[in-house]
Write a structure and sequence with these properties.
3 helices; 0% strand; rod-shaped
Amino acid sequence: MFQGFPKNYKIPEGMADSKIYKQAGNAVSVPVIERIAKKIVKTLDETAKKTDTIFEMNEKCRKSILL
């Protein structure tokens, strides 16, 4: 799986290589963003355990990330 794209993903035929590279480079796939969001939530939760005030602030962020 390249950058989170499924194995059956097809690159359009007849497209210039430069356009394909640009498209791939600018792509943001759901699995990649999901993994980043989960890491952020984990870090926020670990920080929240240390400070109650931070926990209250992070809870709002956590809910918006997990929607």
